[in-house]
Amino acid sequence: MTAEVTSFLPYHEPGIVTILIQSSFILILNVVNTLFDKLIFCGLLGQVFIGVAWGTPGAKWLGQEVENVIVQLGYLGLILLVYQGGLDTNFRSIKANFSLSVAVAITGIGFPIALSFVLQSVVDTTPIQAFAAGAALCSTSLGTTFTILNASGLSTTRLGTVLSSAAMMDDVVGLVMVQVISNIGENSESFGAVTVVRPLAVSFGLAIVVPLACRLVAQPLTTWLNGARKSSPNGALNKLCQATHTAFIIHTLVLAALATGATYAGTSNLFAAYLAGASISWWDSEVPHLDSAKVGCSHDSPSSPVEHGTSAGSTGSPNPSSRDEVGPSMEGEATARETTPKEQSESIASSGISVYHRYYAIAVQRILQPFFFVGHFPILSLSFKAKQNQRLRLVSLFQLQICSAVQSSGEVLSIQSLCSSLNSSRAYGWYAWIFL
């Protein structure tokens, strides 16, 4: 009988108190996010406070199991936020501002670490403690950065391109430093060159392999598919490419494959998510695609996200002169030209960013993104004790722990750094350090 009970999950109707708590939690998250976005373009701050109020640091209305689920779903939202940032990538702007992005990234990494060493004598710490404090503030919260850029409408501007590119560079370097500090704290004997080289090498490898795969595999394959579809407009291949959900499936597989491979290889899956979005954006704008009218398809047939891969930025508007030249006697040509705006709108609607907005955006904006900021808002607590290993603890906001600052003979130093919010604010020139 016991085996039967544990072999399935029994269904229990949730109580009214649970329903009210969880429904109010989700509703207030979205209301506060909307208000803060309209006032200060930073709705995530309100979501953080709601997480504190409903979670363990506050009223403890949400149970531990619910908080764990929120953390897990929130990280899915973070991956999709970074993926959207990749889809918004403008490659021409990146090429034009690459040196500026590198300079911003170097500043964002070097300034906190340099400042921590400058303040080393003030708080009487060791060099390794100063380095750990600087490393806690140099990594950028990608989810926070992309959320603020989207809320303020800067994601497609030059400023947004520079900041997003610099954030990705900071993320790679920050990952290496966090792993170095963690290994030093947990077991200094296991620390070796692999700890530093592996995530860095894998990240550079992805940055090289993914563009090469796009150029040497995706582009020739698309050209071959275009020729095969053009030669057989009624074939199964053309019908498959015209299926409504084909692009959604392909984009999701690309995202999942890169994120999974990067994780097992030892680097950030967020960097892989950005590369997945950027590669799809490149495919949309740089690779030629067939028009449905050119392969003998009816205009009433469903538009294919695969066949129309051009992005909104690369799709031009209809030529005004061609519309003005239509005369009353050119009925056939006029009919053909009247369908051009429709075809072009279908082409825009089936790009990578449009597929994202069609299938992912609502869930991310209303559920997954708020869950990330209330349940996965990281706070780095650096606790250093004499005669003990230094350790780095990543504490969820639901499980916020405030360590008392005791400096008795320099034996204990506790630093609480609100890492994600401070680094997103860094995008607007704010630097803050909290020494408790």
Automatic annotation (TrEMBL):
GO biological process terms, semicolon-separated: proton transmembrane transport; sodium ion transport
Keywords: Antiport, Ion transport, Membrane, Sodium, Sodium transport, Transmembrane, Transmembrane helix, Transport
Transmembrane segments: 15-32, 39-57, 69-86, 98-122, 128-149, 161-181, 201-225, 246-265, 367-384
Cited InterPro entries: Cation/H_exchanger_TM, Na+/solute_symporter_sf
Keyword Transmembrane applies: yes
Name by which UniProt lists this protein: Cation/H+ exchanger transmembrane domain-containing protein
Compositional bias segments (type: Basic and acidic residues): 334-345
GO molecular function: antiporter activity
Compositional bias segments (type: Polar residues): 311-321
Region Disordered: start-end pairs: 294-346
Pfam family, one: Na_H_Exchanger
